[in-house]
Amino acid sequence: MSVTIEKITEPLLLGEGPHWDDRKQALYFVSIKQKTIHKYVPASGTHTKTQLDGRVGFIIPVDGTTDQFVVGVERKFLIIQWDGEEGSKVQVLKELAEVDQEIPTTRINDGKADPKGRLFAGTMGHEESPGNFQKEKGSLYRIDRRGVVKMCESVSISNGLAWDLKEKAFYYTDSLEYKIRRYDYDVDTGDISNKSYIFDLKKNNITGIPDGMTIDTDGNLWVAIFDGGCVLKIDPKLGTISQKIQIPAKQITSVTFGGCNLDVLFVTTGSMPIKEEQEPPCGATFMVTGLGVKGHPNVNFKLP
């Protein structure tokens, strides 16, 4: 089967945070700087969105509900209610936490629920000019029944998150390191330890920075390369690239597996005029089929 890449939405300024909801057979994602949350249903081709009051880093359904989500807005983690309809009003039900109160210039970026439904999400430094960020101002946090726990600090751009239960591993990206980290992961507690690096973009002559990522059932990482126009399939044990998927956009922001059989790779992108104008289809969300692999079901957030 040959690999096919299909544009499924119109361009956004900074599409991010894709999450496949198996229950609804729908893809949720955000456009950070446009302050919007989005829903795409492949079966009907329906794409809806609505506005929030701040820059939004991610959207994850709340487990056991049909219309509630946890979102990261500016520096706050919020529970919201949205019916998924175009332009319908969002109701904020609860504020879970506000982080980085001592550094009010940061904002929440990527976030996911771990295999137990705990929220892992991080912050990033202020963008002083297009593509120029304050370094080491962010942190990675975990939210569970014990409250808010700071997992890592001195992070520049908190990004890709993935877990491998078989290997008891947590993979994580601080984009401006140009590397991918590996930690030992305790599924019972959510704790991480023993940081190491499993891949270095610069040593592999990869242009761009590592952004969002996901993992397939074989344990391979799929990493979005911002400013690199591609998604890399990486073997974390060997630290090698086993496949490179060129996407018709330069700013590749994140990836997740979805579809009925979890064998479709959804790819979000940006169209920010950082060094030059990004013409369509830059900024669109894409659907990649024919990869011959499957992902794990995305986990919904379990309220503490």
From TrEMBL:
Pfam families named among the record's database cross-references: SGL
Q: In this protein, which residues make up the domain named SMP-30/Gluconolactonase/LRE-like region?
A: 14-270
Q: Name one GO molecular function term.
A: gluconolactonase activity
InterPro entries membership? SGL
Q: Which domain of life is it from?
A: Eukaryota
Q: Which cofactor does it need?
A: Mg(2+); Ca(2+); Mn(2+); Zn(2+)
Primary localisation category:
cytoplasm
Q: What is this protein called?
A: Regucalcin
Organism equals Parnassius apollo (Apollo butterfly)
